[in-house]
Design a protein that fits this description.
Layout: H1 6-18, H2 21-35, H3 52-56, H4 59-77, H5 82-85, H6 87-96, H7 102-119, H8 125-143
Length: 147
């Protein structure tokens, strides 16, 4: 089990409080699909992903990006039991979707970049440290079924 300080908990809650889910989620997923084009293979049913403009304007990418962010919100609300919270998602991603677990980290990195851009100077190094710890726990929970 991960130990969270009160400062870390507060920082993570603050990040979520400042997020516009309908902007950050879609932009993060789109960035991931553009920067790491091999991740597109999991989204074959999303239609046109042929270039950055098509990805950025794709409503299915936008909708799924928002879903992903709401999924992270579930982890924030269950910080003391993230592995159990994500057990079904881990099975889904490993056994049905066959997602390479390294892609969770790539998406997390893109999410961090988008959040930093949105929050600017208010995304302090301490806040980022708490955020990175949070993402590491989420990624570990999502990757659990693979081990």
């Amino acid at each position: 089990m991960v130990e969270w300080t009160e400062a870390e908990r507060a920082a993570i809650v603050e990040v979520f409080a400042k997020l516009n889910y309908d902007v950050v989620g879609p932009n993060s997923l789109a960035r991931c699909l553009i920067v790491y084009p091999w991740t597109q293979r999991y989204f074959g049913g999303f239609g046109n992903l042929y270039n950055a403009a098509a990805i950025m304007s794709n409503p299915m990418v936008a909708a799924h990006g928002t879903v992903v962010l709401h999924g992270l919100d579930r982890a924030m609300k269950n910080m003391d039991n993230i592995k159990a919270t994500y057990s079904e998602l881990s099975v889904l991603h490993s056994e049905k979707l066959h997602v390479d677990p390294d892609n969770f980290k790539l998406l997390g990195d893109c999410l961090t970049i988008v959040i930093a851009g949105q929050m600017g100077n208010s995304f302090t190094p301490d806040m980022q440290a708490a955020w990175q710890k949070f993402l590491s726990v989420v990624i570990s929970a999502l990757s659990r079924q693979y081990h």
